[in-house]
Automatic annotation (TrEMBL):
<dbReference type="Pfam" id="PF00448">
    <property type="entry name" value="SRP54"/>
</dbReference>
<dbReference type="Pfam" id="PF02978">
    <property type="entry name" value="SRP_SPB"/>
</dbReference>
<keyword id="KW-0963">Cytoplasm</keyword>
<dbReference type="InterPro" id="IPR013822">
    <property type="entry name" value="Signal_recog_particl_SRP54_hlx"/>
</dbReference>
<feature type="binding site">
    <location>
        <begin position="248"/>
        <end position="251"/>
    </location>
    <ligand>
        <name>GTP</name>
    </ligand>
</feature>
<feature type="binding site">
    <location>
        <begin position="107"/>
        <end position="114"/>
    </location>
    <ligand>
        <name>GTP</name>
    </ligand>
</feature>
<dbReference type="GO" id="GO:0048500">
    <property type="term" value="C:signal recognition particle"/>
</dbReference>
<keyword id="KW-0175">Coiled coil</keyword>
<keyword id="KW-0547">Nucleotide-binding</keyword>
<feature type="coiled-coil region">
    <location>
        <begin position="13"/>
        <end position="40"/>
    </location>
</feature>
<dbReference type="InterPro" id="IPR003593">
    <property type="entry name" value="AAA+_ATPase"/>
</dbReference>
<dbReference type="InterPro" id="IPR004780">
    <property type="entry name" value="SRP"/>
</dbReference>
<dbReference type="GO" id="GO:0006614">
    <property type="term" value="P:SRP-dependent cotranslational protein targeting to membrane"/>
</dbReference>
<dbReference type="InterPro" id="IPR036891">
    <property type="entry name" value="Signal_recog_part_SRP54_M_sf"/>
</dbReference>
<keyword id="KW-0342">GTP-binding</keyword>
<keyword id="KW-0378">Hydrolase</keyword>
<comment type="function">
    <text>Involved in targeting and insertion of nascent membrane proteins into the cytoplasmic membrane. Binds to the hydrophobic signal sequence of the ribosome-nascent chain (RNC) as it emerges from the ribosomes. The SRP-RNC complex is then targeted to the cytoplasmic membrane where it interacts with the SRP receptor FtsY. Interaction with FtsY leads to the transfer of the RNC complex to the Sec translocase for insertion into the membrane, the hydrolysis of GTP by both Ffh and FtsY, and the dissociation of the SRP-FtsY complex into the individual components.</text>
</comment>
């Protein structure tokens, strides 16, 4: 996410290192690089000018305390300016109304609007335990209606049927009545997009807004459009009383400066960001965490949340009891670990949020490589008999050949997987007996970290 911007800021901060103090001379080049980095990311020129002037003013007036180096002080100033630019804090959805709380989704065609309806439905169902109904008012694309039906089925929310012969306003009104009668907490209305802003589209969505009185009107926009994303958001904001923005394709990074511009230009908060195609690829937008990622400091807070959400406490307790009794860590447990990693968003997602070199390393791994490797491991374990999974010592040459053939892999890959398993097994032995008490203390400590950070 925003890798180009992160790399440019990284080189800026390297040039500040080693200076005795921040002066107009030594920050001049740094500010020039900051300006170029923001313009390359397609941040609007007036916003870039204001940002650079603000950083310069604060840097020159900064009293550096004894414990801070000049580069650390400069990072702090830039970090605060980025957070301020993006809106200071997360703005959550307002669902405080007589149910159903109607959420109207608006945006251009191709922005990922329908997919975002599915992702947001999943988020509200999983995190807030809401009863969700979704409906498509896109009567121009039958495929959009079918796509939403399939997404609803995938995330386990209800779908209200519609077809291309109906009028969008009639569809929405009927869905609201149905949602009221069947006690839904939230109704999400997907609307038609166009390839460009036009009067007909704007009139249609205004009529929809007037018909359903949404508590949230969210504009979904492709972050890779750069400045065009901001201009489009501004046009929709003038036509509709938007309550927030969702930026999709934030992992594309071609011109992710929309994240830095859209709040300033529209005055409306970015509420969520979409990352990747997976149905769990939607995150609340925290300006402080995004600023931290841009400056190469990782996103430890989101990392902790991902880990906590991914851990199955019942399975963890069962594992703890098993290890405490001295029973071995077997391949069934190893497979369970992989599944929990998937629940946390996958290895690549977790690594990208880590600070320092690990976070940088994630950018060098081709997308999907780690996920593919985990899939191979699961396939190998699935090709074993229950006895082999419980007792890996049985796995001799002939069995390995059979497993490789059954999983569509090679004997070398089976051996590599077993080596990885042995390393995990050694680590888990550390936590058997008294070591388990240490593990539980570590887990509690991790949960306690939440209180150390604002915004959690």
């Amino acid at each position: 996410m925003l890798d180009n911007l992160t790399n440019r800021f990284g080189s800026v901060l390297k040039n500040i290192r080693g200076q005795a103090k921040l002066t107009e001379d030594n920050i001049k080049e740094a500010l020039r690089e900051v300006r170029l980095a923001l313009l390359e990311a397609d941040v609007a020129l007036p916003i870039v000018k204001d940002f650079v002037n603000k950083v310069k003013e604060q840097a020159l007036g900064q009293e550096i305390t004894g414990s801070l180096t000049p580069d650390q002080a400069f990072i702090g100033i830039v970090n605060d300016a980025l957070v301020d630019l993006m809106g200071k804090e997360n703005s959550s959805l307002d669902l405080a109304t007589a149910p159903p709380a109607v959420i109207l989704m608006a945006g251009l065609q191709g922005a990922g609007k329908t997919t975002t309806v599915g992702k947001l439905s999943r988020l509200l169902k999983t995190n807030q335990k809401k009863k969700i109904l979704v409906v498509s008012a896109d009567v121009y694309r039958p495929a959009a209606i079918e796509q939403l039906r399939l997404l609803a089925e995938q995330v386990g929310v209800d779908f209200f049927p519609s077809d291309t012969q109906q009028k969008p306003v009639d569809i929405a009104k009927t869905a609201v009545d149905y949602a009221k009668k069947h006690f839904y907490d939230v109704l999400m209305v997907d609307t038609a997009g166009r390839l460009a802003i036009d009067e007909e589209m704007m009139n249609e969505i205004k009529a929809l807004h007037a018909a359903v009185h949404p508590i949230e009107t969210l504009f979904v926009v492709d972050a890779m459009l750069g400045q065009d994303a901001v201009n489009t958001a501004q046009a929709f904001n003038e036509a509709l009383p938007l309550t927030g923005v969702i930026l999709t394709k934030m992992d594309g990074d071609s011109r992710g400066g929309a994240a830095l511009s859209v709040r300033q230009v529209t005055g409306k908060p970015i509420k969520f960001i979409g990352i990747g195609e997976k149905i769990n690829g939607l995150e609340p937008f925290y300006p402080d965490r995004i600023a931290s990622r841009i400056l190469g400091m990782g996103d430890v807070l989101s990392l902790i949340e991902d880990v906590q959400k991914g851990i199955d406490e019942e399975a963890a307790t069962k594992m703890a009891k098993k290890l405490h009794k001295g029973k071995g860590f077997d391949l069934n447990d190893f497979k369970e670990q992989i599944q929990q990693m998937r629940n946390m968003g996958g290895l690549e997602s977790l690594m990208s949020k880590m600070p320092g070199e690990l976070g940088q390393l994630s950018k060098q791994i081709p997308e999907g490589t780690a996920e593919k490797a985990m899939g191979h491991v699961e396939a190998i374990i699935n090709s074993m008999t229950p006895k082999e999974r419980a007792n890996p010592a049985l796995l001799k040459a002939s069995r390995k050949r059979r497993i490789a053939q059954g999983s569509g892999t090679s004997v070398q890959e089976v051996n590599k997987m077993l080596k990885q398993f042995e390393q995990s097994q050694q680590m888990m032995k550390m936590f058997s007996g008294k070591g388990m008490a240490k593990l539980m203390r570590m887990a509690k400590g991790m949960k306690g970290m939440k209180g150390m950070f604002p915004g959690m």
